[in-house]
């Protein structure tokens, strides 16, 4: 699948690159730091206890989760935004909500989406109201912002995956004995995996989409009643 902004050979323009960096920055005021996406439960339950186990966990979520869900979805939604196809945007937005196995994961996507809407309003970048689906999720609005910044689809996926990795490592640094140097080692370990995930996501057909991460879903469900926690998911 291609988009009007998609080309493996086309360099990202300077303004597009800066727009992407703005979008994936931890300083983006949407509250992403408040969510662990089930990772805090993995620490609490003893599934992840050290640097190597964290790397294994992240590789698994990337391969079986993002590669099959968020990343290929971004391609499709960014194309729909580029075509002014609000119906397709809404269909994929609803599909994504349906793949969220727990209340926390659904709540995260909707709340981050709502926060991104507020930010886009302040930047005068919000799409026309008739194009915005009900309860637009973070992925849906991320695709819109990337489209508005003229970011090629491949770079959109790389930026999203990078933001996910940085968030997960920030969670680990707060919730387990993981220093910043160890986090950088994991970044080096995962960087090639991010590229591979994007390569695979770009080849996915519609019928192949859908996350297969039961461990994360179980951890997220258990997190809802976890006694002591730092994060909302």
Automatic annotation (TrEMBL):
Keywords: Chaperone, Cytoplasm, Nickel insertion. The keyword Cytoplasm applies. It is found in: Cytoplasm. Its main location: cytoplasm. Required for maturation of urease via the functional incorporation of the urease nickel metallocenter. Belongs to the UreF family. UreD, UreF and UreG form a complex that acts as a GTP-hydrolysis-dependent molecular chaperone, activating the urease apoprotein by helping to assemble the nickel containing metallocenter of UreC. The UreE protein probably delivers the nickel. This is Urease accessory protein UreF.
């Amino acid at each position: 699948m291609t988009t009007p902004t998609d080309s493996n050979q086309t360099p990202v323009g300077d303004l597009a690159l800066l727009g992407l960096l703005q979008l994936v920055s931890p300083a983006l005021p949407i509250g992403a730091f408040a969510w662990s996406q089930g990772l805090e439960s993995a620490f609490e339950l003893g599934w992840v206890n050290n640097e190597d186990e964290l790397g294994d966990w992240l590789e698994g979520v990337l391969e079986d989760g993002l590669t099959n869900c968020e990343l290929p979805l971004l391609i499709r939604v960014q194309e729909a935004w580029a075509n002014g196809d609000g119906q397709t945007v809404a269909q994929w937005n609803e599909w994504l909500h349906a793949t969220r196995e727990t209340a926390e994961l659904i709540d995260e996507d909707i709340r981050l989406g709502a926060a991104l809407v507020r930010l886009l309003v302040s930047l005068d970048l919000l799409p026309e109201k008739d194009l915005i689906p009900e309860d637009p999720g973070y992925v849906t609005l991320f695709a819109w912002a990337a489209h508005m910044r003229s970011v090629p689809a491949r770079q959109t996926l790389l930026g999203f995956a990078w933001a996910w990795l940085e968030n997960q490592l920030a969670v680990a640094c707060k919730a387990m004995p993981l220093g910043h140097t160890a986090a950088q080692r994991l970044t080096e370990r995962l960087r090639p995996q991010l590229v591979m995930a994007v390569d695979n996501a770009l080849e996915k057909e519609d019928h192949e989409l859908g996350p297969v991460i039961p461990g994360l879903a179980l951890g997220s469900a258990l997190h809802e009643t976890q006694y002591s926690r730092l994060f909302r998911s």
